[in-house]
Amino acid sequence: MSLTVLGCKLDDIDAEASSSRIIEFAKAKAGVQIVTLGTEMVVHAQRDAAFRSIINNAALSLCDAIGLLLAAKAQGSHLRDRVTGVDLIARICSAAEPDALGIYLLGGAPGVADDAARVLQRTFPALRIRGTQHGYFQLDDSPAIAAAIKASNADLLFVGLGFPRQEFWIAEHLAATGCGAAMGVGGSLDVLSGKVERAPESWRRFGLEWLYRLYREPHRWRRQLALPYFVWLVFIDMLRRRVGTGTANA
User: Fold this and answer.
1) How far apart are CA 201 and CA 189, in angstroms?
2) For position 67, what pLDDT does the model report?
3) Which domains are seen in the chain, by residue range?
């Protein structure tokens, strides 16, 4: 089941069900794109129709932000929590071990994907990591990178290039990689590698990872302006829906 938040598809599915679906996609060689949707992405999608189309055509569009979760609940969703990129990667890797599925990590500064791979390998000793590639490459290098991923026989691709670049890259090159599923993971590779400190559990429990990140990196304040703007857009959208319903019932 899915709903729409400001014109963007959001699947009403939890982390456990999401990881199971993604594993099935990988095993079936489905070649599908997974989006971990955040509020900034929804705001960006308001002015970028091509980006919005990628979100709406994804096999899964998952709730990766507290603002989205609250907006979904306001529309009657039974989602109890977010499906965060870092946690979902761990779930997928755990489920990939017994099925001998291979993963590939693409993104981050030079060395970040390698460090993230080492952490995942220590955590999941039987995990098959097929390869890594940093995200500091030229657009012209994309076909060669996709070919390298295909040659690695990876089944699952995690792409941490930041939005919207990662979503566009997956949409354009997924077929050439031969992967059964590819997911945009934003800064999750930075967190896994230890380059970026994740918010403490107490902050995450209340969906305040964004605030902790802002506290640690105050130069990101401009990016956080998307959150109040998102709230305003949701408010206006809800108001229009109520007015429309009232007019229809008159």
Assistant:
1) 18
2) 85
3) 2-246 (3.40.50.10700)
